[in-house]
Amino acid sequence: MKEKWSALMEKEGAKTVVASLLSILIGLLMGCIIVLIVGLTNPALGAGSVWDGIRLVLGGILSTGRDAVGKLTFGFNPTNVGNMLFRATPLILTGLSVAVAFKTGLFNIGAPGQYLMGTAATLIVALSIPTASVPAPIVWLLAFLAGILAGAAWGAIPGMVKALLNINEVLACIMTNWIAANLVTWVFADSIWCNMEENGKTGYIYKTAHNGVETAKWGLDAVFPGSQVNWGIIIAIVLAVVVYVFITKTTIGYELVSCGSNRHAARYAGINDKRNIVLSMAIAGGLSGAAASLYYLSGNTEFFWSTYQSLPAVGFNGIPVALLAASNPVAIIFTGCFMSMLNISGQQLTNLTGYNEYITDVIIAAIVYLSAFSLVIKMLLTGRKKRKTAASGLDSRPAQDGRTEKGGEGA
Amino acid sequence: MAAENVIEMLHITKEFPGIVANDDITLQLRRGEVHALLGENGAGKSTLMSVLFGLYQPEAGIIKKNGQEVRINNPNDATALGIGMVHQHFKLIDVFTVLDNIILGAETTKAGFLQKKEARAKVQALSERYGLKVDLDAKVEDITVGMQQRVEILKMLYRDNEILIFDEPTAVLTPQEIDELMATMKEFAKEGKSILFISHKLNEIMAVSDRVTVLRKGRYIGTVDTKDTDRQSLSNMMVGRSVQLEVQKAPAKPGEAVLSLRDFCVPSKAHKRNAVNGVSFDVRAGEILCIAGIDGNGQSELVYGLTGMEKSSGGTVTLCGEDISHASIRHRGRNMSHIPEDRHKHGLVLDFALEQNMVLQRYREKQFQTNGIINRGAIREYAQRLIRQYDVRSGQGPVTVARSMSGGNQQKAIIARELDREKPLVVAVQPTRGLDVGAIEYIHSQLVAERDKGRAVLLVSLELDEVMNLSDRILVMYEGEIVGEFDPKKTDIQELGLYMAGAKRMEKGGQSA
After folding, report:
1. DSSP per residue over B88-123, as a string?
2. Residue A145 within any structural domain of the chain
3. How far is CA B371 from the centre of its chain?
4. Given CB atoms, is A223 within the 8 Å cutoff of chain B?
5. Is the pLDDT of residue B413 over 70?
6. Which domains does chain B have, with CATH numbers?
7. Distance between CA A288 and CA A118 in Å, rounded?
8. What HEC string does B36-86 produce?
C-alpha cells in the first residue's frame, strides 16, 4: 500500500492534484481561523456563531437553513447546488481563457476586459433584434456568437501588440481592460438599452428576458428547483472538453503549446510563433467573451453599465481557477465549481449568521491567495520525496566495496 | 611516487531517482599534479565534482583532505578548504568589472566599506606572476571568452585556493589560448597546487596531465599514469569498446551545387555592421563543406540567415534551383534539415516528450494527423523507429521528457530527427559540441553517410580537429567574410589558425575561381 502510494506520488499529475488539494485545505483552514478570530472578538457574534460560521465555511453548499429551534440544518440543497453550477459557468470559461494563454506562455490578465466586451456585444444583440420577427433561439445564438467574437477581438489586440511590437502582454492586457471598461460605460450610458421603467433601476441594462431571450433550462430546473441554473453550465463543460482536445490532440494545439514551451524551438521548426501568439490570445478572449454571454443570456441577470471604475471580478477569478487546475481544461470544470461553491458558502454565511457579508470575500481572497501557492507546495512535495530517497539510499546500499570493475567489456 | 594525497574521495556513491550517477568511485589527487578526469557525457564527472564542491551530498563514501575526513555541505565549505572551480559556463556578472567579479564574495572591507585598493594590488600581482592578462576595469560583457576564463582563474587564485578544478575549460578557446591555458596549468602544478582537469579531449589530456582517472556510466574504471598510456587505450577505457578516432571516408564525389549563396549579408544584433558581409559560396551534392572560424565571426548569423531564422539584408540564397532569399522558415525546411547550434534553445522543446520532439517539423504530414487531429499512435511508432535506428537512449523511451535526457542523447535525437527528414541539404552547426568520443564517432559517421547518399552537407565547427577530419573543403570565416578556401589534405591546423585569427587572407574568389 505504502509503495503504491509512493509510486503514485512519483507521477507529475498526482503531485499537482495533491498540491492543489492541499492549498484548498489550507485556504479553508485560514477561512475558519478568520471566522474564529472575528467571532471571538465581536461581542455580537460569540462562540455559537463561530461554530455555525465554521460549519458554513466548510459545508455551506449543503446548508438547508435553520430549523424551528434555530439550529443549522444540513442536507442536499438543490437550490444551492444549482446556483453553484450557474455561477461556475462564467468562472469555468474565464479559467479556460487564462489556461489557454498559459499554455502558449502568455499571461492573460485581460480576461475582465474581454468579459466586458463580450457582455456588451451579447446584450446589444440580444436586446436589439426583435424577437417578434426573428425566433428567440436564433437571437440567442447570434448574441452568444457576438459575445465570443467581441471577446476574441479584444483578446487579439494584446496578442498582436505582443507579436508585432514585442510589448509585454500583461501591460497591454491591463490597458485594454480599462479601455473596455470605459468603452462599455460610454456605449450604454443613456442608451436605449437602459432600463428606465422600473423605479430605482435606471443604472441597469434590461435583462435579456425583456426581449424573450434566455438560455434554456431543459429539465435542469426540475433537478435543481428554485435555482438559476440553465444549460449554460453544460455548454461550459462541453467547451472545457473541446479546449482539452484542442490543446492535446490537434496540430494547432501542438503548435500553440510548442510556442509556449519554447518559442525559439518552435520558430526553428518553422512554426509561425507570431501568428500563434495572436491566435492564442484570440481564443482566450473568445472564451472570456463566452463567459459573459452565458452569464447575461440567462435572462434574469442584470448588467450595471457604469463600470468605468471597476472591472468584473469574474475575469480576474479565472486566474486562480486556472492556477488551481494547473491549466488542465478538464480540472478547470472542478476548480471553477469550487470557486463558485465558496461564493455560495459566503452567501449562506451572510444569510444565516451575524457575519458581515464582506468577511466572505476575505475568506475567498485567502483561498485564492493560497491557490497561487499550489506551485510552491508542489515543489515542497518534490523536495520531500528527494530527501526521502536520499535517506533510504543510505540504509539500503549493499556493501559492494570489494567489487572491481575494469574497462573493456566490449572491444 | 611518495607524493601525498591532498584530496581523497573514497567510495563515493551518489544516486538520483532511477539512476546511480556515482557508484563507488574513488579519486585521489596528489599535491602538485595535474589529474585529468575523463569520461563520456553522463559518466558522472560533473556529479563527482559537485560532491567535492558541496553541491550534492553523497549517499555513501567519505572525502579526506590531507588525510583528515572532512564534510563538505555547501560551496562555502569547499572554499574554506581551498577548493576552487572554473565552471564550464562561467559564473560571472556581465555588468560588473573584472575586478568586482574577482573580489565578489571575498571582499576586503573596513567598517563596511570596500577596500578595493588592496584587492587591486593583490589581483595585479597574481595576474603578472602567472601571465594571466586581464583588464581589471573592463566590464565582463565587453571582454573575450578567453579573458573571462582568466578572470575565473584569478578568482580562484585570489581566494588562495590550492585545489583547482577546471570543468571542460578548453571548449570555448582558440588553439592559441588553449596552449596558454595548458602552460598556466603546468605552472600551477609546479608550485604545488593540485589540479583536477575535467575533459574528454584526449589530445589535451595527453599533453597536460600527470595521471588520468577514467569513469564510465557512473563507475570507476581505473587510474593510469599518462606517460604509460596513449589516446587509443584511454578512449577504449572511456567508451568500453574500441573507438575509431579518425573518420573513415572515401574521397568525395561532388555533384551539382545544391546551395548557392551570392553576396549574402546578415545584419548583426550587437553592432551596426553586417555580421555576415557579402559571402558567396556553393555547397555541392556529395560533399562536406566546412565553415571554420573562431566563435563570433559571423558563423551563427550565417546559419540564421540561411535557414530564415534571421532576415538577411542582402544577396541571394538559392536552394535546389529555387530562390529562397525571402522564404519562410517552413518553406526553406522543405529542402533543408538543420542541426542547430544550441540544442536547448532551438533544437528541442525540453518539456515535451521525446516523441513530440521527433515530429517538431513533421506533425502536419499526412501520416501523423487526420484533419488536424494528431495521430498519437503513428507518432509513437515513428519515434520508436528513430530511437532504435539511431540508438537514442532514454529512461522511458518515446515518452521520456527531453529535459531529463543526457546531452549526448538529446543531440542524437536531434540528429535522428533531422537526418530522417532526408533533405538534399544538411546544415549542421557544431553537431558534436560537448559530446564524448563515442557520440562524436557516431555523429561523424552519420554525416559522412549523408554525404555518400549524395546530400550536400554544410558543417559549421569551431573544433579544428573536426574540421580537418570531416570536411572535403574548408572555408575560413573571419569578421563576417570568407577569408580563405582550403583543401584539408593540403593544409594544416597552423595555417588555418592564421586565417582564423585574421593574420592572413586570400583575395576574394582567389582559389575557387
Report:
1. SS----TTSBHHHHHHTTS--EETTEE-HHHHHHHH
2. yes
3. 42
4. no
5. yes
6. 5-239 (3.40.50.300), 244-335+423-513 (3.40.50.300), 347-422 (no CATH)
7. 7
8. EEECCCCCCHHHHHHHHCCCCCCCEEEEEECCEEECCCCHHHHHHCCEEEE
CATH number (domain holding residue A209): 1.10.3470
pLDDT at A1: 54
Q: Is residue A161 part of a domain?
A: yes
Closest by Cβ to A389, choosing from B17, B241, B348? B17
Q: CA–CA separation, B241 vs B438, rounded Å?
A: 9
- Mark yes or no for CB contact B346/A397 under 8 Å: no
Q: What pTM was estimated for this model as a whole?
A: 0.78
Asked whether residue A320 is domain-assigned, the answer is yes
The CA dihedral of B135, B138, B141, B142, to the nearest 10 degrees, is -80
**Percent of chain B clearing pLDDT 90 (strictly above):** 46
The answer to whether B236 contacts A407, with C-beta atoms less than 8 Å apart, is yes
CB-based contact, A272 to chain B, within 8 Å: yes
Question: What DSSP assignment string belongs to B262-293?
Answer: EEEEEE-SSSSSEEEEEEEEEEETT-EEEEE-
Which tens digits make up the pLDDT trace of B353-391? 999 999 999 999 999 999 999 999 999 999 999 999 988
As for how many domains chain A has, the answer is 1
Number of CB pairs, chain A paired with chain B, less than 8 A apart:
109
Mapping DSSP to helix (H, G, I), strand (E, B) and coil, where does residue A70 land? coil
- Which residue is closest to B39 within chain A, CA to CA? A407
- Chain B residues in contact with A400 by the CB 8 A cut-off are 24
Average pLDDT, chain B: 88
B271 exposure class (CB count in 10 Å sphere: 0-12, 13-18, 19+): exposed
Going residue by residue through chain A (411 aa), what tens digit of pLDDT does each one get?
556 666 666 677 787 888 888 888 888 888 888 888 888 888 888 788 888 888 888 888 888 888 888 888 888 889 999 999 999 999 999 999 999 999 999 999 999 999 999 999 999 999 999 999 999 999 999 999 999 999 999 999 999 999 999 999 999 999 999 999 999 999 998 888 887 776 666 678 888 888 888 988 888 889 899 889 999 999 999 999 999 999 999 999 999 999 999 999 999 999 999 999 999 999 999 999 999 999 999 988 888 888 888 899 899 999 989 988 889 999 999 999 998 998 898 888 888 888 887 877 787 787 777 766 777 777 777 766 555 544 444 333 333 333 333 333 333
Length in residues, chain B: 513
Q: Name the residue among A77, A84, A4 with its Cα closest to residue A338.
A: A84
Nearest chain B residue (CA) to A410:
B241
**How far, in Å, CA of B35 to CA of B5, rounded?**
12
Q: Is residue A376 part of a domain?
A: no
Task: Tell whether A264 is within 8 A of chain B (Cβ).
Answer: yes
User: Which of B20, B242, B349 to mutate to probe the A interface, most A CBs <10 Å?
Assistant: B349
- For the residues of A179-245, what is the DSSP string, one character each? HHHHHHHHHHTT-TTB--SSTT-TTEEPPGGGGT-----TTHHHHSTTS---THHHHHHHHHHHHHH
Structural domain boundaries, residue A262: 78-357
Give the chain A residue whose CA is nearest to the CA of B24.
Answer: A401
Nearest residue to B455 via CA among B278, B283, B305, B307: B283
Measured CA to CA, the distance from residue B236 to residue B217 in angstroms comes to 14
